Structure to design on (1719 residues):
C-alpha cells in the first residue's frame, strides 16, 4: 500500500510541473481582417465562429457570412461552425474568403453489424454503436459498468463491489443476457456468482466484463431481428465487440494508467454498543412478559469505555480500497503490414481488512494484418488473459458478515491482550475475522488463463469488383485451476482466554482443474455493388461451425491433525476423493443476407439462417430462421426537404424475424441409464447404481422466438436535435414444458417435455440527443431510456391448476398478466399513512389484524381492501418487485473546451421496489447490532415505563415499536404487523445516480513536441458519486438487489475516485 | 494437436456442404448415459441395476421412528413434535418409479438370459432378489394404504397418447395384496441360494425372515381390524380394499410360524452373547450387538462401510449426549433422541436370583408412581411438587441400579457414566430458602457447605446434557425427557462417521414373531414359545422362566426391539395406536409422553436428589388436545392422486 501511495504523490508532482511550465504566446503587430465564410455550395455559413487561435479574441459571421476581426499579422484563425469541419488558417491578407467543408455526418459512419459493416444511414434495424472514446471516457475495471447508462435498451445493474466477480446483471430490453461476439466468435467466461463460487455456467457478460477497455475499437448492440443472423441463442440480442487492430502510420506507443481510491457507496451507520444495548432492552420489554437483556451496569460500562466499542463490521471491512490499472500499447504499420500490441495489468484491492480477496489480471493482446499478395491479406490475433484471485475458504463475505452479526458485540474478534488468538463466538457461528485470515483458516485460490486466437484470410476478388471472400478460424483455450485449503484452527474464550474449541473445518486441501476448448471455423463471401448509380446491392453468405469441449478433474485429501503443505500428495490417501467430467458440444449454421437500397431512400434487407445444434435428435437438429427489415429515409424525399429543410435525417424502420433458443438437456433424445448413488453389498466395497428415470425427449426442439421492431431516427439542425425511438415486441413460443396430459402414477415415469409454453416481451427504447458547439465549447447530451414488460401467454400447467378462491386465482394465475401485475405483493396504507399512536387506538380498532398479539404502537394502519374486517393476504396489492428494473434510463453529458474535456454519465431505474432489510442488519433482535437509521421509532418516553400500560406516553417515530425476531426471516414478513410487505419497508426503488464524472486535460502539441510526446492527457474521474433515491434506501444502496433479509451482508458497491494519464509517443 | 486438425477437418466437412449432421455425430455424445444393452451385457452391469433397487428398499434404517411412539421424544421445537407420538411419520410408499425400476430389471434379466448373456442359475438369483425387493416395497405399501394397484411389468408399452387404457391398474383388495407379497416371498425363497458372496444381499433366509414379519403383520391386521373397524359405507371398505377380517388371521399366523421355524431350525442363527454369567457381561454383549458386524444374529440389513470414503449412518453424531459428543461445542446437534420415562419404567428390575420384577422407577415414598406433574416450572406445578414426599437419592443414578441389562446398555439415564463422563441430566434446584427453580435457563447456583450446586447440575451448557434451552431453536443438543438413546452408539468414543450396519431383520425378532404368532393362534404356549421367550430374557441375564402369555411376549418385544423402529409397527398392526377419544376417559394421562426430572434438593437436610415425574413440556396441554386426535380412519393413509389414477380413494379422504 505504501508503494502505491507514493506513486500517487509522484504522479501529482509531475502533473503540477507540467501545468506550471505551460507558456503563453507573445503579442505582435496587428491587422484588421474582413472576410466571408461560405460552404461548398457557396452559401454563407451563418454564425460561424472565427477565433484567433489560442486567445479569446473572436468574431461571428453575420447573415451573409461576413466577419471582421483584428489580429496580429501572421496569426492563425480557427473557423468553426456546427456541422462543418473546423478549419485553421494563417492570416496573410486583410480580406479572406474561407470555405468550410461539411463535417462527415455520423450517418456516413460505417458500423459493425453481423458478419460485416454497414453505413449507419442505410441501417434498417435497431442497432446501437458505441465507440472506443465513449467507453474509455468512464473507464472502470469492469467493462459492463462502463457501458451503464449509455446504450438504450441495455439494462445493467451493478450487484456488488466485490472485485473480480463480474456479477453485474445484464439484460437487453428485459429479454435476458445477450450473446457476446468478440471479433466474430461467440465467447463466454466463467463467472463467480453471488455466493463466491465460480459458477459452472459460462457467462457471456463475464466475457465482456473481463475485456480490457483500452483494447476495444467499438461495440455494436443488435437489439432486434438483426441479431438473428447469429442464430441459436441470439434471442436476447447480440453485443458485438471489435477490438483494436493495427493502422497505417508510424509506430505509436501509448501508455495509460488509472489509480483508484474507493469507498463504499452506502453503509448503514452502526450504533455504539450502549445504544444497541438500550435498544435491545427496549425491544425485549416490548414483549409481554419480556425482560431486559442487559443490566444498567453493563450499559454504563460501555458508555464509560468507548474504546470497547467493538464492531464486527469494522473488523472485517476496511474503509477504503486502492486499485491500479496500467496499459501500454504499440500500434502502427505500413501499406504492407499493420500491427497492434498491448499489455495491461489490473490490480484491484478488495475491501476486506484481512489479506484475501484481491484480484489481479494480466492481459496481452497482439495482432497483425499483412498483404500476402495484392488481393490477399492475412490477419492473426491473439489474446492472453490471466486472472488470479485469493478468497477465504468458507463461504466468503456473505457468511462472514452473517456470522459476525449473530455474535454479541460484547465479544470481540481476538483476545484483548493477544490479537493473535481468535475468539470463539459461541453457538454455531464462527469467527469471521479468523475465517478471512489466510494464515489461520486457509484460502481459496482461483487462477485462470484465457488464450484466444483468430486467423483470417481475406481475398478481394480482382475479377469482380465488390466481392471479397474470407475464411476464419478461431481456437480458444480457457483453463481454470481452483484450490481450496480449509484449516482447523483454535478458538479461545473471550473472557478467560482459555482454549474453547476448534473451528469445525477439517484440514483439507481441494484442487479442481477445468479446461474448455473451442474450435471455430467460418467461410464467408461479401459482395457490394451499385447498378445504374441508384441501386445499391449488398450480399453476404457464410457458413460456420463451432465445437466446444469441456473437461474437469478434481481431487481432495484431508490431513488429519497434522497439516503440512497444500498439495494433494501430502494429504492422507485414505481420506481422498476425486471427480472428473467431460462433455462436448457443437453447432453449425449457414447464413445469408441481401441488402438493397434505391437511392439510399428505400431500404430492404432479407436475411436467413439455417441452423443446427447437437442438442436434439437427428431430424430435429436443423431449422431455418428467416427475417427481414425495411427502411424509408423520408428525409431524402424532395417533398420532405421542401417542407422540413432543417431535418437532415428522418428514417422509418421496421424489422421482423425469427430465431431459435436452445433448450432442454443435451442428448435428451437418448434414453439412457445414469449413475444414481451406490450401495454396499459387502463391507468395504460399494457398487454404484444406475437407473433410467427420464423418458427420451425425442420430439423436443428449440423454442421459436419472433422479434419485431418499429423505429424511427430523426436528426435536425445538423445534430442540434436527434432522436431514435423503437417499439419492440418479442414472442417466444414452444418453450419446453411437461405436458399436463394426465397419465397415472403407475407408468412410473413422467411424460417427455414438449414445445408448449409461450411468453412475450414488449417495450420501448428511446434516445434523445443534442450536440452543439458554442465557441470553443463542444458538447453533447444524450438521454436514453428503456421500458420493458413481460408476460406469459401460454402456460401448460395452468390447464390443470385448480383455483380455490378468487384470491387464489389472483395470486396464482399467470397467463396474460404483465410482470407489473405479479411482481411482489404488498399491503396499502390508509390515506395519510396513519400509525397507531397508542394502545387505546390499537384496542379500539375495529379491523382484525392477523396476529393481534404482535400489534404495537407505531404500526401502520393497513387498508382492508376487501372490506371483510380482517387484514390478511386477500388485502394484498401487486407491485413491481425487486430485481433488474424494467424501466431504466441514462443521461450522458460530455463536452470539451480547448484542452479540457469532461463526461458525466447518469444512470437510473424505476418501476422497481426494494425491501428495507428489517432483520438483516437492523436488529429487531436477531442480529446483534443496531443501526442509527432505525432509531427513529416509537418508544415509551420513559424507558422504564411499562410499554403495555395504556397510560404510558409514546414518542412517535417512523418505525413501529421494536420487537425481537427469532430468525433472519422472521422480521421479514411472517406477520402482518411487522410484515415487510408494507410501504414502510417495501420502498419505491427509483433512483438516479451520477454513475461517473470524468474531467481531463489534453496538453497542446507545441509544448509536447519539445519532449517528443505526441499527446498527453491527464484525467480524474469518480464513479457512483451522487445518488438520488428514497432516503430509507440510502444506507443500503438502491442499485443492489440484496434480497429482503440479507441486510448489509455482502460487499458494498464502491464509490471510486480515480486519476490517471494517457500518453502517446 | 492431432485433435485440433481433426476438428478443423470436421469443420471443413460441414462447411463443404457434405452431410450436415456429421459434425454432431462426431462428438463423444453423452458420457453420463449408458444404454440398456450396455447395462445388461454383463453381470457387473446388472449388479449396478440391482444396486439402485437395493438403495430404495423401504427399510427405514436409523430413521428414529420410535420418536413417533410413546417410547421416545424429539426436541421441543422440532417439527416432528407437532403431532407428537400420533404422527406416524411413515408416509406410505407410493413410488411407482421404483416399481418400474424393479419390473424393468426383471424384464432385462429375462432378455439377458434369452440372449445367453447370463446363465439360468444367475438368472434365478437375480429374479429371486428382484422379487424379494418387490415384496419389501409392496409390504410397505399395503400396510399404509391397504390394497394397492399391483404392477408387475413396465407399462410404457401401453402409452399411446390416447386412451392409455393399459396404464390404469385397479387396486387389488387388501387381502390380495398381502397374499401377493407373501407369494412373491415364497418365490424368492425358492429362487435364492442359502449363502451369497455379497453379505448384504438377499439370501433364502432373508426372504424367510421378511416373510415371518409380513405374515405376522397380515395376521395381526386381520385379527384386530375390527378393533378399529371402518364402516362399509366407505367404498374402499365395501370393495375390501381397506378391509381384513379375523377369519384370515390363523392362516397368516401359520405362515409366520412356518417361516420363523425354517430359520430357527436351520441352525444357522443364534442370539449373540446368549448366556452371560453376570449383568456386566450381558451389558457388554448388548452394547456390542450392533457394533459387531453381521454376527450370528444378523439375517438381513444394510452396511454403512464402503472402505473408501465416508458412508455414515450419522447415528452417533446426531444422538450422542451433549457432554460426550466429541465434535466440540458450537456444533448444533440435531438428534436429541430423548427416551421417555414411560419406556424407562417398562424395563424390569433384577430381583433375587436374577428374576424379573417390576422395574417402575421409585421416586416417592407413597408409591403413587402414576402421578405426573403437569406444569413443573409453573407455580401450580411447583406447589404440587412441594407437597410430595420424595425418596432422597444421593445420586439420581442410584434409582437405576437394578435395571435390566438392556436398559443399562441401550439407555442414557441421569448421572450414568458414558464414555468415561458422568452424564449430568438435571432439571432444577430446590434452594435452601425453599424456592424451587425448574427449567431456568439462567442456571442459578447456590453454595452449600463449600460446594456449589447449579440448576442444571453444572456450571454451563458444555457440562450438562439435559433440559437446557427447552423451546429454543437450538434445543436439539439437550435431552427433554431425562433419558437418551444409547443403543447403536459406540460406548468407548464419539464417532463422527458411524459405520455400524443396520440390522433390519435379526434373529431375536424372528423368535418374538414366532412367540406372538403361536400365542395369538393357540393361546399361551408352554412349549417352544416359552423356550424362545426365555432365551431372549436369558441373554439379558434373567434366570427365571416366564410363561409365554401374550402380555409377556409383547412386553419383551417392546424392550428387546426398542429404537429399532418396531414399536410403532406393533401398535399399528395391532390397531393399538393411542386413540384420544377412546382412551382419555379411562386413562387421562395416556398417550402423553413423560419425563423424569432430577432435582437437587438443598432445602431439606443434607443435599440430595429427588426425581420428579412430569409431563414432557410445561405447555403441552394445548398441543395435547389439538393434536392427539387419532382417528380410526387414519390407519389407512390418503391415496395420492386418486382422481388422476382413477382408483378408489381411502376412507379418510371421503
Amino acid at each position: 500500500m505504501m508503494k502505491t501511495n507514493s506513486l500517487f504523490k509522484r504522479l501529482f508532482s509531475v502533473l503540477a510541473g507540467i501545468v506550471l511550465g505551460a507558456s503563453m504566446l507573445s503579442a505582435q503587430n496587428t491587422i484588421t481582417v474582413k472576410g466571408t465564410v461560405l460552404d461548398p455550395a457557396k452559401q454563407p455559413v451563418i454564425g460561424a465562429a472565427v477565433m484567433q487561435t489560442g486567445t479569446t479574441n473572436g468574431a461571428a459571421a453575420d447573415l451573409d457570412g461576413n466577419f471582421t476581426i483584428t489580429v496580429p499579422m501572421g496569426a492563425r484563425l480557427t473557423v468553426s461552425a456546427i456541422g462543418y469541419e473546423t478549419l485553421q488558417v494563417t492570416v496573410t491578407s486583410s480580406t479572406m474568403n474561407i470555405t468550410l467543408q461539411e463535417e462527415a455526418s455520423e450517418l456516413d459512419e460505417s458500423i459493425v453489424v453481423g458478419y460485416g459493416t454497414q453505413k449507419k444511414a442505410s441501417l434498417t434495424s435497431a442497432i446501437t454503436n458505441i465507440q472506443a472514446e465513449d467507453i474509455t471516457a468512464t473507464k472502470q475495471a469492469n467493462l459492463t459498468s462502463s457501458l451503464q447508462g449509455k446504450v438504450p435498451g441495455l439494462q445493467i445493474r451493478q450487484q456488488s463491489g466485490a472485485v473480480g466477480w463480474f456479477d453485474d446483471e445484464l439484460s437487453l430490453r428485459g429479454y435476458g443476457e445477450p450473446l457476446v461476439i468478440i471479433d466474430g466468435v461467440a465467447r463466454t467466461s466463467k463467472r463467480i456468482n453471488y455466493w463466491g463460487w465460480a459458477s459452472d455456467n459460462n457467462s457471456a457478460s463475464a466475457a465482456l466484463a473481463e475485456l480490457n477497455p483500452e483494447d476495444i475499437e467499438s461495440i455494436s448492440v443488435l437489439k432486434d431481428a438483426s441479431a438473428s443472423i447469429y442464430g441459436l441463442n441470439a434471442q436476447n440480442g447480440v453485443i458485438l465487440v471489435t477490438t483494436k487492430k493495427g493502422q497505417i502510420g508510424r509506430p505509436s506507443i501509448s501508455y495509460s494508467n488509472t489509480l483508484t481510491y474507493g469507498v463504499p457507496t452506502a453503509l448503514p451507520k452502526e450504533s455504539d454498543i450502549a445504544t444497541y444495548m438500550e435498544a435491545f432492552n427496549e425491544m425485549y420489554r416490548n414483549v409481554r412478559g419480556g425482560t431486559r437483556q442487559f443490566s444498567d451496569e453493563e450499559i454504563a460500562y460501555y458508555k464509560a469505555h468507548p474504546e470497547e466499542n467493538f464492531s464486527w463490521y469494522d473488523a472485517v471491512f476496511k474503509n477504503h480500497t486502492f486499485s491500479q490499472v496500467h496499459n501500454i500499447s504499440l500500434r502502427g504499420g505500413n501499406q504492407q503490414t499493420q500491427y497492434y500490441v498491448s499489455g495491461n495489468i489490473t490490480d484491484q484491492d478488495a475491501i476486506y481488512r484481512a489479506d484475501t480477496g484481491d484480484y489481479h489480471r494480466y492481459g496481452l493482446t497482439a495482432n497483425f494484418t499483412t498483404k500476402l499478395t495484392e488481393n490477399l491479406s492475412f490477419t492473426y490475433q491473439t489474446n492472453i488473459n490471466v486472472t488470479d484471485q485469493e478468497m477465504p475458504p468458507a463461504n466468503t463475505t456473505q457468511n462472514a458478515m452473517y456470522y459476525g452479526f449473530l455474535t454479541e458485540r460484547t465479544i470481540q474478534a481476538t483476545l484483548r491482550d493477544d490479537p493473535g488468538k481468535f475468539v470463539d463466538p459461541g453457538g454455531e457461528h464462527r469467527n469471521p475475522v479468523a475465517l478471512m485470515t489466510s494464515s489461520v483458516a486457509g484460502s481459496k485460490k482461483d487462477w485462470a488463463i484465457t488464450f484466444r486466437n483468430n486467423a483470417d484470410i481475406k481475398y478481394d476478388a480482382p475479377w469482380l469488383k465488390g466481392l471479397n471472400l474470407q475464411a476464419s478460424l478461431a481456437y480458444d483455450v480457457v483453463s481454470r485451476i481452483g484450490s481450496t485449503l480449509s484449516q482447523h484452527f483454535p478458538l479461545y474464550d473471550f473472557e478467560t482466554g482459555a482454549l474453547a474449541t476448534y473451528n469445525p473445518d477439517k484440514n483439507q486441501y481441494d484442487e479442481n482443474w477445468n479446461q474448455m476448448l473451442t474450435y471455430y471455423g467460418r467461410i464467408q463471401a461479401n459482395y457490394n455493388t451499385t447498378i445504374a448509380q441508384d441501386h445499391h446491392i449488398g450480399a453476404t453468405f457464410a457458413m460456420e461451425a463451432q465445437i466446444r469441449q469441456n473437461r474437469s478433474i478434481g481431487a481432495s485429501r484431508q490431513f488429519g491433525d497434522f497439516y503440512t503443505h497444500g498439495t494433494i500428495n501430502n494429504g492422507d490417501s485414505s481420506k481422498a476423493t476425486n471427480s472428473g467430467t467431460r462433455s462436448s458440444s457443437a453447432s453449425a449454421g449457414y447464413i445469408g443476407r441481401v441488402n438493397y437500397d434505391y437511392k439510399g431512400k428505400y431500404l430492404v434487407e432479407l436475411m436467413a439462417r439455417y441452423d443446427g445444434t447437437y442438442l436434439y435428435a437427428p431430424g430435429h437438429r436443423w431449422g431455418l430462421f428467416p427475417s427481414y427489415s425495411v427502411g424509408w429515409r423520408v428525409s431524402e424525399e424532395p417533398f420532405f426537404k421542401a417542407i422540413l429543410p432543417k431535418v437532415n435525417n428522418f428514417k422509418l424502420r421496421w424489422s421482423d424475424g425469427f430465431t431459435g433458443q436452445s433448450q432442454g438437456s443435451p442428448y435428451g433424445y437418448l434414453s439412457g441409464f445414469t449413475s444414481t448413488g451406490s450401495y454396499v453389498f459387502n463391507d468395504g466395497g460399494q457398487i454404484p447404481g444406475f437407473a433410467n428415470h427420464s423418458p427420451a425427449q425425442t420430439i423436443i426442439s428449440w423454442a421459436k422466438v419472433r422479434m419485431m421492431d418499429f423505429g424511427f431516427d430523426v436528426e435536425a439542425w445538423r445534430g442540434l436535435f436527434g432522436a431514435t425511438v423503437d417499439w419492440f415486441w418479442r414472442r417466444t413460443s414452444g418453450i419446453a414444458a411437461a405436458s399436463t396430459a394426465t397419465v397415472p402414477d403407475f407408468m412410473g415415469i413422467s411424460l417427455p417435455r414438449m414445445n408448449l409454453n409461450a411468453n412475450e416481451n414488449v417495450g420501448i427504447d428511446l434516445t434523445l440527443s443534442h450536440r452543439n458547439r458554442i465557441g470553443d465549447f463542444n458538447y453533447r447530451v444524450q438521454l436514453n431510456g428503456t421500458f420493458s414488460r413481460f408476460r406469459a401467454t401460454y402456460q401448460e400447467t395452468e390447464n390443470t391448476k385448480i383455483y380455490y378462491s378468487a384470491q387464489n386465482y389472483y395470486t396464482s394465475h399467470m397467463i396474460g398478466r404483465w410482470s407489473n401485475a405479479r411482481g411482489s405483493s404488498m399491503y396499502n396504507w390508509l390515506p395519510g399513512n396513519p400509525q397507531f399512536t397508542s394502545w387505546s387506538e390499537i384496542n379500539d380498532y375495529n379491523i382484525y389484524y392477523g396476529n393481534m398479539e404482535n400489534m404495537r404502537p407505531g404500526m401502520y394502519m393497513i387498508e382492508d381492501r376487501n372490506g371483510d374486517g380482517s387484514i390478511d393476504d386477500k388485502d394484498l396489492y401487486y407491485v413491481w418487485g425487486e430485481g433488474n428494473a424494467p424501466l431504466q434510463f441514462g443521461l450522458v453529458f460530455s463536452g470539451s473546451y480547448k484542452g479540457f474535456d469532461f463526461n458525466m454519465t447518469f444512470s437510473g431505474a424505476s418501476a422497481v421496489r426494494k425491501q428495507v432489510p428489517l432483520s438483516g442488519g437492523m436488529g429487531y433482535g436477531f442480529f446483534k447490532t443496531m443501526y442509527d437509521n432505525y432509531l427513529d421509532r416509537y418508544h415509551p418516553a420513559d424507558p422504564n415505563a411499562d410499554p403495555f400500560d395504556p397510560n404510558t406516553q409514546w414518542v412517535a417515530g417512523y418505525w413501529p415499536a421494536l420487537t425481537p425476531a427469532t430468525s433472519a426471516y422472521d422480521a421479514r414478513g411472517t406477520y402482518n404487523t411487522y410484515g415487510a410487505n408494507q410501504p414502510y419497508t417495501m420502498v419505491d426503488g427509483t433512483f438516479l445516480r451520477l454513475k461517473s464524472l470524468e474531467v481531463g486535460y489534453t496538453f497542446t502539441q507545441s509544448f509536447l513536441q519539445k519532449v517528443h510526446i505526441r499527446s498527453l492527457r491527464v484525467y480524474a474521474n469518480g464513479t457512483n458519486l451522487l445518488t438520488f433515491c428514497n432516503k430509507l434506501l440510502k444506507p443500503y444502496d438502491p442499485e443492489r438487489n440484496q434480497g429482503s433479509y440479507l441486510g448489509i451482508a455482502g460487499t458494498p458497491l464502491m464509490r471510486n475516485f480515480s486519476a490517471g494519464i494517457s500518453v502517446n509517443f | 494437436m492431432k485433435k485440433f486438425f481433426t476438428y478443423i477437418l470436421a469443420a471443413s466437412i460441414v462447411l463443404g456442404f457434405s452431410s450436415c449432421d456429421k459434425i454432431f455425430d462426431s462428438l463423444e455424445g453423452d458420457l453420463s448415459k449408458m444404454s440398456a444393452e450396455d447395462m445388461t451385457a454383463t453381470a457387473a452391469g446388472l449388479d449396478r441395476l440391482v444396486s439402485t433397487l437395493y438403495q430404495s428398499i423401504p427399510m427405514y434404517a436409523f430413521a428414529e421412528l420410535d420418536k413417533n411412539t410413546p417410547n421416545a421424544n424429539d426436541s421441543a421445537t422440532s417439527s416432528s413434535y407437532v403431532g407428537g407420538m400420533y404422527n406416524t411419520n411413515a408416509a406410505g410408499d407410493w413410488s411407482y418409479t421404483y416399481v418400474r425400476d424393479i419390473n424393468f430389471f426383471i424384464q432385462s434379466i429375462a432378455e439377458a438370459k434369452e440372449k445367453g448373456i447370463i446363465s439360468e442359475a444367475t438368472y434365478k438369483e437375480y429374479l429371486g432378489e428382484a422379487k424379494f425387493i418387490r415384496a419389501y416395497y409392496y409390504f410397505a405399501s399395503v400396510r399404509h394404504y391397504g390394497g394397492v394397484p399391483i404392477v408387475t411389468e413396465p407399462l410404457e408399452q401401453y402409452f399411446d397418447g390416447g386412451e392409455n387404457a393399459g396404464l390404469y391398474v385397479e387396486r387389488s383388495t387388501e387381502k390380495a395384496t398381502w397374499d401377493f407379497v407373501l407369494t412373491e416371498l415364497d418365490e424368492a425363497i425358492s429362487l435364492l441360494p442359502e449363502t451369497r458372496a455379497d453379505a448384504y444381499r438377499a439370501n433364502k433366509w432373508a426372504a424367510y425372515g421378511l416373510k415371518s414379519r409380513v405374515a405376522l403383520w397380515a395376521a395381526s391386521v386381520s385379527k384386530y381390524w375390527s378393533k378399529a373397524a371402518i364402516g362399509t359405507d366407505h367404498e374402499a371398505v365395501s370393495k375390501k380394499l381397506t378391509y381384513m377380517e379375523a377369519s384370515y388371521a390363523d392362516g397368516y399366523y401359520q405362515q409366520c410360524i412356518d417361516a420363523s421355524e425354517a430359520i430357527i431350525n436351520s441352525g444357522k442363527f443364534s442370539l449373540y452373547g446368549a448366556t452371560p454369567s453376570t449383568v456386566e457381561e450381558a451389558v457388554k454383549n448388548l452394547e456390542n450387538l450392533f457394533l459387531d458386524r453381521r454376527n450370528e444374529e444378523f439375517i438381513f440389513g444394510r452396511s454403512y462401510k464402503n472402505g473408501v470414503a465416508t458412508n455414515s449412518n450419522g447415528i452417533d453424531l446426531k444422538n450422542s449426549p451433549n457432554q460426550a459428543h466429541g465434535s466440540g461445542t458450537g456444533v448444533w446437534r440435531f438428534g436429541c433422541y430423548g427416551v421417555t420415562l414411560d419406556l424407562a419404567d417398562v424395563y424390569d428390575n433384577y430381583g433375587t436370583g436374577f428374576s424379573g420384577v417390576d422395574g417402575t422407577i421409585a421416586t416417592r415414598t407413597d408409591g403413587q408412581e402414576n402421578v405426573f406433574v403437569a406444569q413443573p416450572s409453573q407455580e401450580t406445578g411447583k406447589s404440587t411438587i412441594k407437597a410430595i414426599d420424595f425418596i432422597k437419592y444421593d445420586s439420581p443414578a442410584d434409582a437405576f441400579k437394578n435395571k435390566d441389562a438392556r436398559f443399562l446398555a441401550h439407555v442414557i439415564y441421569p448421572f450414568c457414566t458414558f464414555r468415561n463422563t458422568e452424564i449430568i441430566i438435571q432439571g432444577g434446584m430446590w434452594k435452601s430458602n425453599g424456592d424451587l427453580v425448574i427449567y431456568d435457563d439462567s442456571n442459578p447456583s447456590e453454595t452449600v457447605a463449600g460446594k456449589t450446586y447449579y440448576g442444571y447440575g453444572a456450571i454451563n451448557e458444555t457440562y450438562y446434557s439435559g433440559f437446557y434451552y427447552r423451546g429454543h431453536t437450538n434445543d436439539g443438543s439437550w435431552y427433554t425427557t431425562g433419558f437418551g438413546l444409547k443403543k447403536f452408539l459406540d460406548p468407548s468414543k464419539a464417532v463422527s462417521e458411524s459405520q455400524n450396519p443396520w440390522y433390519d431383520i435379526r434373529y431375536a425378532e424372528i423368535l418374538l414373531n414366532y412367540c406372538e404368532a403361536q400365542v395369538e393362534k393357540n393361546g399361551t404356549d408352554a412349549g417352544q414359545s416359552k423356550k424362545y421367550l426365555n432365551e431372549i430374557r436369558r441373554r439379558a441375564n434373567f434366570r427365571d422362566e416366564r410363561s409365554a402369555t401374550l402380555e409377556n411376549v409383547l412386553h419383551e418385544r417392546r424392550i428387546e426391539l426398542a429404537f429399532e423402529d418396531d414399536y410403532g409397527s406393533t401398535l399399528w398392526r395391532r390397531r393399538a395406536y393411542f386413540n384420544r377419544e377412546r382412551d382419555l376417559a379411562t386413562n387421562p394421562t395416556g398417550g402423553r409422553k413423560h419425563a423424569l426430572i432430577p432435582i437437587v434438593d438443598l432445602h431439606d437436610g443434607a443435599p440430595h436428589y429427588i426425581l420428579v415425574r412430569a409431563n414432557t413440556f410445561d405447555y403441552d396441554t394445548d398441543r395435547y388436545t389439538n393434536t392427539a386426535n387419532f382417528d380410526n380412519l387414519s390407519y389407512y393413509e390418503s391415496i395420492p392422486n386418486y382422481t388422476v389414477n382413477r382408483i378408489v380413494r381411502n376412507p379418510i379422504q371421503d
